[in-house]
Amino acid sequence: MISSHVDPVDISSTSAQLALNHVFKIYPGRQSWQDKLLRQTSPDFVALADINLEVEANTFVSIIGPSGCGKSTLLNIIAGLTPPTRGSIKLNEVEISKPGPDRGVVFQNYALMPWMTVFENIRFAIETVYPHMTIVEQKNIAREYIDLVGLRGAERKHPHELSGGMKQRVGIARALAINPKILLMDEPFGALDALTRGFLQDEVARIWEQQRQTVILITHSIEEALLLSDKIVMMTRGPAARIAEVLDIPFPRPRRRESLDQYPAYHELKAELEMHLSQETRAVEEARIKVKP
Amino acid sequence: MPFVRFMANSLPQRRKLVPIWNSNLQALALFLVVLIVFLGAWELGVQLNVFSQLVPSASRTLQAFWGWVSDPFFDYGPNDKGIGWHVLASLRRVVTGFLIGSAIAIPLGILIGLSDVISKAVDPYIQVLKPVSPLAWLPLGLGLLKDSENTALFVIAITSLWPTLINTKFGVSNVDPAVLNVARTLGASRWRTIWKVILPAAAPSIVAGLRISIGIAWLVIVAAEILVGGTGVGYFIWNEWNNLEITSILTAIIVIGLVGLLLDRLFGLLQTWVSFGQR
Ligand SMILES: Nc1ncnc2c1ncn2[C@@H]1O[C@H](COP(=O)(O)OP(=O)(O)OP(=O)(O)O)[C@@H](O)[C@H]1O
Ligand SMILES: [Mg+2]
Description:
Chain A is α/β, with parallel strands linked by helices. Chain A has nine helices and ten strands. Chain A has helices spanning 3-6, 33-37, 71-79, 118-129, 135-148, 164-177, 194-211, 222-228, 264-291, and strands at residues 18-27, 45-55, 60-64, 86-91, 94-95, 103-106, 182-186, 214-218, 231-235, 243-248. In chain A, strand 7 (182-186), helix 7 and strand 8 form a beta-alpha-beta unit. In chain A, helix 5 (135-148) crosses helix 6 (164-177). The longest helix of chain A is centred in the C-terminal third of the chain and has 28 residues, at 264-291. Chain A is globular, with a radius of gyration of 20 Å. Chain B has ten helices and no strands. Chain B has helices at residues 2-47, 58-70, 83-114, 116-129, 138-145, 148-173, 177-185, 190-228, 233-242, 246-274. Chain B is globular and about 75 Å long. In chain B, 31% of the residues are buried. The chains are: A alpha/beta, B mainly alpha. Chain A binds chain B through residues 79-81, 99-101, 103-105, 107, 109, 111-115, 124-125, 128-129, 158-161, 174, 178, and chain B through 176, 178-179, 181-188, 192, 196-197, 200-201, 203, 274, 276-278. Adenosine-5'-triphosphate binds at residues 27, 45, 47, 67-73, 238 of chain A.
């Protein structure tokens, strides 16, 4: 495990296959007698209903779906941060019940420790996961991943001195530096402007070419999903969100955003994704209008 | 052409000077005006016998002030010591009592910040004891400890307890859940999470609590020393009142204020240091 750090291009052995079986998530409503007394009861909320998904090792999978359908909930369940109400999640055939360093998580709001420098944030992760590694080795790995995400020169800066794009680079480096079997990203570029987002997408594509880890990416952007993914999972609207369809994205790699639309399948796939998303979003809006009066 | 360039160069410089004069120098001037008017009215009032016979004149007070402050460390026996010795005695008590109080308040605050059960169990004690004046503990301290010095420390320790305790609890239970999730996804142990994540994140709140505590401790020490006697600025004030030396009392008031200001600034510096990059 440690030796694979020295050579990040090493493929299959470190990556993992993920299987979700009949996963449900029901957020309990407020129904205690105190709530009843105060007339504040609310029914249980079924966020996810019967999610089944197989993710092969070394594939890049995007999850796309209308806002509020339960994408973050699903990712948090895989990360182990939220327990599923029912169902099983297996990573390399092993049941997952709590968070662990076999899964690296990139958060939408970066979640950097504000009192640590860039270097310290990354080394904190390495030291936590590999407490017996020598300090020299920890520092070498931290430096290696700082280089990988293009942050050399900013090691001693604190998060408040960084732009959003740089912060997310730290988030990505921190998640990768612990050499996880699978990388989980929840709208990692959602808070960035379009230019920075495109730039970071290219970086992620480049890094993925090197590492080929299993990745699950949640995104709102169809172009982003098409550029990066091997498979795109389309979810239906909530409540009781399900997986509507899984699309294969066959474009050869390395991909370039400028030339992606030259593949004949590109426009077809894009149209299908757009139609699905707009259909679901319209249904969400209609349901909302009906509920209001 | 040269004239135009001269204009262009000199204009922005003048603009820069004006705001500095406006804010800082104006405030300083106003401060001095208030001081001079106050001292003048005081001096005039005493000359015209407006106040009671006890009130010393401003000039006499300033002379006495300078006398005390220019030679703070003389020692002619227990009832005739420089004000520096008294300040040091009070500071030693405040710092010792404050350290004892903080050594209890910080760990306890972390504990109740981490555990809902302990928090709910301890909360009634805190709620009931917090509003009690620290001086109410003084007779109890004298009775239990049978020693005025330890009683003063006891009172200061209790004084320093509450703000630190409450702020520590607040800081620990309000750590950004995002960084806690990071620690969880890395599989960090409970101890490592507390030391490396929760404590640094709560440090600004904890130091804010310490800052309030030392401020109140410095307030309370004067009253405690008036009651227990011996040494210290509180004792000094009481002693000078018995001698009817009002100028010395006024001197002590200014010195106490300056020392309190200094303590507050020290913790203010500590506060900016630990909250670097946060909030
Ligand atoms: N702790 C909770 N308690 C109750 N309901 C919740 C809770 N967390 C999420 N939900 C509900 O579950 C649904 C799914 O939320 P989730 O955050 O997973 O959606 P999402 O697809 O990530 O949305 P977005 O695209 O806006 O990020 C939402 O309707 C939300 O209101
Ligand atoms: Mg979300």
